[in-house]
Amino acid sequence: MILERLVRNITKRLTGFIRGLRSFMGFVVSIFVSFKSFRHLRFRSIYSIAVNQTRFTGVDALPLIVFIALLLGGTVIIQATKNFPKFGIEDFLGNLLVIIIAREMGPLVTAIIVVSRSGSAIATEIATQKQKGEIQSLEILGINTTLYIVFPRIVASFIAIFSLIIIFDIVAFFGGYLISLTTVFIPVDIFFESLLNSFNFLDLIITLLKSLIYGILIPVICCYYGFKPESDFQIPIYVSKAVVRTLVILFVINALVSALFYF
Amino acid sequence: MEPKECLKFDEVSYLGESSISLVDFSFSLLEGENLVIFGPENSGISLVCPLIAGTITDFEGTILYRGSSVKDFDFLAMHNYRTRLGYLQAGYGLINNMSVEENISLPLKYHSSISASEINVRVSELMAELHLDHCKNLRPVDLLKSEMLKTAYARAIALDPDLILLEHALETQCLLNAQTYLTSLMRRTFSEGSSVIVVTYEPERFAGFADTFIMLYKGNKVFQGDRGAFLEQKNPYLKQYMQASLKGPMRIL
């Protein structure tokens, strides 16, 4: 009896998951289909959307990114100087920051901040526009809503996330260096030489790759859930789903990319 | 020269949500002709504009726009077709994070190849015609009802469409403030030859403007006639509707 109920529950959840995945794939296909009208798209009509989205996702998030990067860089160094022997620490502090901050925490924390701020805003904005009839009114004006709404947000998210990751890494290194000064004195040139020696071309490629993946996934998933609500009361449900599911997918993607390149 | 047929409904049937339906609905609209479609709630009048605009596609029968079936339009044909329509929706559908000026210029920026300065001139002309200059930079949330109506109307006609669809445009409006809109509409239809379809609960407001009146009840056409027939009110459905009487062939909800 219990086993039967368990099997039924698992089957139900699996069916729901497959249905959801199929629906999401349908949305992704509709984005590709919408590119058929790409040559009719005049960039002046999406320019302001892309600029506003880049400003909101990138520029407006800067204070938060800087603050968290400083704290995170400092925390990593505090742990390192506390738990590792002080002798020869200047040689591996740079390596440690590159491994923890540049390769993993930088892209991931930046993406988490972007999802929390911009992902939720994208989903809410689209859901509200849909409920107020704005999406329908765009369609009636002959505007391809998928292209008009999703495409500029993908471009903006990619630019913003890539820039934010770079800034996050630089600030975290700087924060780490400042904290390290309170315990052990490392000359600035030696610290940054150690950082540069630890960096390689692959790290840069992976940062770019992660920016690209996150820059596409975050707006696409959040737009998908933004288009879902059929009534006002469903808006918070789908906004919550947009944020939670995007975060889960980001963690999975982050692990996969790291495993693929560093394992 | 005889005016050509602009739009034709040929035995169009559709069963929508909440049991709103259309049953074998037929009519044709010539270039420059003005048609008013009215009827009580749940009569199917709310389906007419979405059917014409192609947002409802799973209907039976044929809708022809200048001889081509709307149902058979592919992605790009539908895209081009919608630029020929000026659709003023019920509720207006203004984009809330755009100003009045940006709302009006949106179809021009998206569809037309004219330069930014020409767009500015066109938008300024429309705003002057509809007395919207004072609210150029305001967002829809800051507008009066009549200003929202005029902004939505300006956006609908920005591309000079040859078929204008007006869905419950004057309902809940102050008629005095809406006069600039009505004056512009009259000018457009009389001098520029656009065809207009008005969907409304208040057909009498368009009595001096429309050529043909159609009344629907429970998805069926129960009256069709010219201005004279409409004003005479000999049809029992029309008489009951215009007199808002409880007695007559229609069952009041």
The end-to-end span of chain A amounts to 44 Å
Outline of chain A: globular
| Main β-sheet description of chain A | none
Our count of helices of chain A gives: 9
Low-confidence residue ranges of chain A = none
Number of strands of chain A: 0
Strand and helix order of chain B: EEEHEEHEHHHEHEEEHH
Structural class of chain B: alpha/beta
What is the helix/strand order of chain A?
A: HHHHHHHHH
In helices, the fraction of residues of chain B equals 25-40%
- Mean pLDDT figure of chain A: 88
Q: What's the end-to-end separation of chain B, in Å?
A: 47 Å
For this entry, what is the oligomeric state of its chains? Answer: heterodimer
**What strand order characterises the main sheet of chain B?**
6-7-8-3-9-10
Summed up, the domain count of chain A is: 2
Spans of at least 5 consecutive residues with low confidence of chain B: none
Total number of helices of chain B: 8
Strand portion of chain B, in percent?
A: 15-25%
CATH topology name of the largest domain in chain B: Rossmann fold
Overall, the morphology of chain B is globular
- Fraction of residues in helix of chain A: over 70%
How would you characterize the overall build of this protein?
The complex is a heterodimer of chains A (263) and B (253). With 263 residues, chain A is an all-alpha fold. Chain A is 86% helix and 0% strand. Chain A has helices at residues 2-34, 43-57, 62-83, 89-131, 134-140, 145-183, 188-198, 201-227, 235-262. Chain B is of the alpha/beta class. Chain B has two domains: 1-84 and 161-253, Rossmann fold (3-Layer(aba) Sandwich), CATH 3.40.50.300; 94-160, no CATH class. Chain B has eight helices and ten strands. Chain B has a six-stranded mixed beta sheet with strand order 6-7-8-3-9-10, with helices on both faces. A four-stranded antiparallel beta sheet of chain B has the order 2-1-4-5, with helices on one face. In chain B, α3 (100-111) crosses α4 (116-129) and α3 (100-111) packs parallel to α5 (145-157). The model of chain B has no long low-confidence stretch (mean pLDDT 89). Chain A binds chain B through residues 33, 36-37, 40-42, 44-45, 48, 125, 129, 132-134, 136-144, 148, and chain B through 53, 55, 75-76, 78-83, 85, 87, 89, 91-97, 102, 106-107, 109-111, 113, 116, 155.
